[in-house]
Amino acid sequence: MLIRCISAEWLKLRHSRIWIILVTLPIISVLIGSANFYINQGVLAKEWYSLWSQVGLFYGEFFFPILISICCAYSWRLEHLNKNWNMIMTAPVSAASIFLSKMLVVGLLLIFVQILFFLLYLIGGKLVGLTSAPPSELFEWFIQGWIASLTISAMQLALSMRYRSFAVPIGIGLCATFLGLAMYVLDLGMLFPHSLLTTGMGVLSQSDFSSQSEYILFLITNLLYIIVISLVAIRWMRRKDVVA
């Protein structure tokens, strides 16, 4: 049942224009960050880490969360058209399969985006003249950023499911990015999905977790968010089924 739902999601995305956004936003992030680094190399003296502080700031704080919001809103777009909700709720598939299939497909799209961004970061570093080895934390930032992106995806999928408007969940997601930044600055980065992304990708502080327990807390917090939000969203879908 879940496999059928995943196949249906891929069919919807295969010929869509969402791929343009998936490619364009990482490119813009790296171009802006690399240009800023190149212009200010006299001040930004830590080479790859300084470059990461520039490209990661635009990508991790703004473009990536917005991209996640767009992907999630797009994944529910067809369901909100006409009376497709009634068709879905009467189909022989469970609410859990519908929601989880969207989570899995969005998660795969975000892996593609992460790979593209990190490759562009390496290319950008070479183009601006960096000759030293890239940061050893690069793979950790990749994985931790992807984990945190799943947490944001769960939240955005729930919002996009709830609101018929395509723009409203994206607007809420944009506001959440600023809230996440504020919570990170206040040393509350482990308490909100968007600040978890900032922490995991080392966007503002190019350093690893201070201890193993902090890393475990990061993983547990993400997992709890994903589970709780998914359960609430699936329960809402089941209740909507009764109402329909």
From TrEMBL:
Signal peptide: none
Domain of life of the native organism: Bacteria
Keywords per UniProt: Membrane, Transmembrane, Transmembrane helix
Pfam families, per database record: ABC2_membrane_4
Segments traversing the membrane: 18-39, 51-76, 97-121, 141-159, 166-186, 215-234
Name of the protein: Multidrug ABC transporter permease
Organism whose genome encodes this protein: Lysinibacillus odysseyi 34hs-1 = NBRC 100172
Organism phylogeny: Bacteria, Bacillati, Bacillota, Bacilli, Bacillales
